[in-house]
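Worked example 2:
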Amino acid sequence: MYRNDQNINDVIKKYLSEEIKLDSNTKIDDLGMDSINYVGFLLEIEEKCEIEFEDECLANNYFKTVGDIVKYVNEFKRI
């Protein structure tokens, strides 16, 4: 697991009310976050992974899975 993957998983677990098994196919909708928590969650990922999401990424349906977020972060880090 890459360091960014672990950072993202750590942030996700902080926002969950119950323990669930996370993998790259875990759907964002299944995490049970409302829109305010979702934005806070992404802002915390920005801070922890030292990246900046584009504005359109803050829309609730931009990322479909945890893997989508990990891929975005890893691609951003390559720039």
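The mean pLDDT is 82. The chain has three helices and no strands.
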